[in-house]
Every structure is written in C-alpha cells, then in structure tokens.
Design brief:
Elements lengths: L7 E12 L2 E12 L3 E5 L6 H8 L7 E6 L2 E2 L5 H8 L2 E4 L11 H11 L5 H14 L15 H13 L5 E5 L7 H16 L3 E5 L3 H7 L2 E6 L2 E6 L1 H6 L4 H10 L1
Parallel strand pairs: 3-8, 3-9, 6-7, 7-8
Antiparallel strand pairs: 1-2, 1-4, 4-5, 9-10
Helix pairs in contact: 3-4, 3-5, 4-5, 5-6
Bound molecules: adenosine-5'-diphosphate (ADP) and magnesium ion.
Pfam family, one: ABC_tran
Family: Belongs to the ABC transporter superfamily.
InterPro entries: AAA+_ATPase, ABC_ATPase_HisP-typ, ABC_transporter-like_ATP-bd, ABC_transporter-like_CS, MetN_ABC_transporter-like, P-loop_NTPase
C-alpha cells in the first residue's frame, strides 16, 4: 500500500475505442490519484492493453476524455502529445529495447533527444538508474545478451530515465521465465513504495494483493468492478469478477 495524496493524476470519462466495427472499450470511467497503484485484471482480449494505450495516446480514443493533470489529452496538439511521452513511462510485455544499442545507449536516448540533456547528465542519470535496478555492470552490453528479467529491469530503468510522473505497465512479467518474475516484481514494488503512481495490467495476483491500492476488473469493454485487493480476491462484488477470480485462483 502506498501513501496517496488527493491529487487526481488521471481521470478517464466514458472512454470508448473501436477498431473498425469491433468496439473494444465501451465506456470506461476511472480515477487514478497521485501515488496510487491501480492493478487492472481481466480475461485475455478484454481490452486491457487498449485501455493502457489510450491513457498515453499510443491509441487514439474513439470518444470520451482522458484528463492527465487536468488536461484533456484527446485534445492536445502533436507537440503537446510528444511532451506527454516524457510524463508517462510505459513498460511492455516484450521489453521493446533497441537491439542495436547498448543498455546505456538505450537509457540515454530519450533524455538526450526529448529532454535535451547533455551526454554527461544523461549518462549519470542512466547509470544511477541501472544501479537501482541492480544492473550497473550491464551498461555496455547489448540487449541480446540479457536474460528476460534483466531486459525488463533495463526497460523499467529506461522509462524512469525520463523522470515520469506515472508509470504504465502492460503485463511486464508475462513473457518471463518463472524464475525471473520475482526480480521484476520487486523493482516494481520498490517503485510503488517510493510513491510512484502506477497503472499495472497484470496476471500476478500476489503482486496485486500486496501492492495495489485498487484492483480494476475489466471484461466485455467495461470496468465491471473496482475494489480494494482484499475484496476483489476474497469477496468480489460482481458475478463476472467472481467467475474470473474462481478460474484463476
Ligand atoms: P487484452 O490486453 O485485454 O488482452 P487487447 O486490448 O489487446 O486486450 O485487445 C482487445 C481487442 O482489441 C481484441 O479483440 C484485439 O483483437 C483488438 N485490438 C487490439 N489492438 C488492435 C489493433 N491495433 N487493431 C485492431 N484490433 C485491435
Ligand atoms: Mg494485453
């Protein structure tokens, strides 16, 4: 559980997203406050990734509003959207590191390009972050030589190098061998303990139980239930969530 203040960081209002005539998100509402950790769970194909991608405009919502720090992101200009990339970090299932760059180069790229940091400053920040995820000794290797768990920790450090206000995680451990899941979750837990605002799509129910302030259950294009972790996992309030929890536990 993290400390939260009352500042609303993200507010989603009647968010809808269709691909052709496939309406994936049918009207999502939700509020993420500063310092909160929201875990999003739900069946495969229910729109969890689409929802996360709409939060930072990797997908354009079909309708509705996504307010970030009070501003409706769906109405921003291109350059404002680019600036926003700096304020929300995202970690993907498959790491998405640049294979032709060393670990350190991966980390330095955006701080230099987007934030115009000097090479010296970008290097310092990057090495500090690599240290924090326990991988300072990997600065000069290429991603192909990393294990999945190491690659995902590098991906987290790379996102953090932009000093984001919110971190979005899309199933960050589901492509990992089981023995590597823990090292990634523990970095995420530390980040949560430090007060980072996080939205985490995950199948790791243990993590959600321990770290989430709220669990959102998504199915059929809606968030069917928002509950504290104990209620969601021990005593879900909706039949849809009960069915899902019974199947996965
Ligand atoms: P989840 O992450 O919960 O598994 P997704 O958000 O990935 O679900 O997908 C929800 C639905 O949206 C699926 O039917 C998927 O095929 C569809 N979808 C996702 N992204 C696209 C896209 N870029 N183009 C077309 N359909 C998509
Ligand atoms: Mg997904």
């Amino acid at each position: 559980m993290t400390k939260t203040d009352d500042k609303v960081m993200i507010q989603v209002k009647d968010l809808k997203k269709s691909f052709g005539d496939n309406e994936v998100l049918k009207g999502i509402d939700g509020t993420v406050k500063s310092g909160q950790v929201i875990c999003v769970i739900g069946p495969s194909g229910s729109g969890k990734s689409t929802f996360l991608r709409c939060l930072n405009l990797l997908e354009n919502p079909t309708s509705g509003e996504v307010l970030f720090d009070g501003k409706d992101m769906t109405k921003l200009t291109h350059s404002e959207i680019a600036g926003l990339g700096a304020r929300m970090g995202m970690v993907f299932q498959n790491f998405n590191l640049f294979p032709n760059m060393t670990v350190l180069e991966n980390l330095k790229l955006s701080p230099k390009k987007v934030k115009h940091l000097s090479d010296e400053d970008a290097t310092k920040i990057s090495l500090d972050l690599l240290d924090r995820v326990g991988l300072k000794n990997k600065a000069d290797v290429y991603p192909s030589s990393l294990s999945g768990g190491q690659a995902q920790r590098v991906a987290m450090a790379r996102a953090l190098a932009m000093n984001p206000e919110v971190m979005l995680f899309d199933e960050p451990t589901s492509a990992l061998d089981p023995e590597m899941v823990g090292e990634v979750l523990s970095v995420m837990q530390e980040l949560a303990n430090e007060g980072m605002t996080m939205v985490v799509v995950t199948h790791e129910m243990g993590f959600a139980k321990k770290v989430a302030d709220q669990v959102w259950f998504m199915a059929d294009g809606y968030i069917q239930e928002k509950s504290d972790p104990e209620t969601m996992f021990e005593n879900p309030q909706t039949e849809r969530a009960q069915d899902f929890i019974n199947k996965i536990i």
